[in-house]
Amino acid sequence: MGKSMEKPVGKSARKPAAKATVKAAAGSGWKPESRLAMVRRARKINRELAELYPYAHPELDFRNPFELLVATVLSAQTTDLRVNQTTPALFAAYPTPEDMAAAVPEEMEELIRPTGFFRAKTKSLIGLSAALRDNYGGEVPGRLADLVKLPGVGRKTANVVLGNAFGVPGITVDTHFGRLVRRWKWTEQEDPEKVEAEIATIFPKSEWTMLSHRVVFHGRRICHARKPACGACPIAPLCPAYGEGETDPEKARKLLKYEMGGQPGQRLSPPADYPGRPAPALGAG
């Protein structure tokens, strides 16, 4: 079990914010920049995030590709924490695609009820499990074209599975990722597939999976949707949206979440290098 962190961790988080630079940028407004300047700034943000979150990882608990696929489907319209609190009982009851394909729908619905939309999710999980059993020998395929044919599996889910279970680079555009890349003016696109396509032109393929984790981590911990913790953000000097949130450092620090704010993370079984506390099991607090 890792220690709770009261302040941001990582090399970048320990650097004092460049207040003069930030104030100058905020006071004069963000100036238009060339494509080359934007790419350089985007890659610098990625490097800063890599220092800030050297432990970035998928925040769903899983032990194999099948468990990751199921957990990602369950994560729609709910938190990763709630999924992680729900899947231990689910995988104990249905450890393989063959088992899940043969599940009694009403029994599975009760197990996954805490994740919401449990009837639709049950239909998807039984359907994708049957497809894995019948078409792929009970194994999760390692190709995007095959994954997106499975019930309930879209491009975002497929990229999560490919990147984290098979090591195939992919950009995962969830709500956090889309919000931040627009806030940073890397793209103006709203459609997830168009966002993915534009961001893919900015970064080398080898960075795609970890970039996704870092951006999502930052969105969940510091750059919140309603009130970003601008005054506690190490990349503030690089951000066109600086000032949309709380700029006072002390007030901003109180907005930090998860390990940044000294609170448990979302995984019950986090990676060994995670610096915060594991999340509690369902009903444990």
What does this structure look like?
- The protein is mainly alpha-helical.
- 47% of the residues lie in helices and 0% in strands.
- The chain has helices at residues 19-28, 35-52, 65-74, 80-93, 97-101, 105-112, 118-135, 144-147, 155-165, 175-183, 192-200, 208-221, 249-253.
- α3 runs antiparallel to α9 (155-165), α6 (105-112) packs across α7 and α10 (175-183) packs across α12.
- The two termini are 17 Å apart.
Estimate percent helicity.
40-55%
Give the terminus-to-terminus CA distance. Answer: 17 Å
Share in β-strands: under 5%
Radius of gyration: 20 Å
By DSSP (H or I, 4+ residues per run), the number of helices equals 13
Low-confidence stretches: 1-28
Q: Strand count, sense and closure of the main sheet?
A: none
Overall form: globular
Question: Which secondary-structure class do the elements indicate?
Answer: mainly alpha
Number of strands: 0
| Overall pLDDT score | 91
Order of helices and strands: HHHHHHHHHHHHH
Question: Helices, strands, pairings?
Answer:
Layout: H1 19-28, H2 35-52, H3 65-74, H4 80-93, H5 97-101, H6 105-112, H7 118-135, H8 144-147, H9 155-165, H10 175-183, H11 192-200, H12 208-221, H13 249-253
Helix pairs in contact: 3-9, 6-7, 10-12
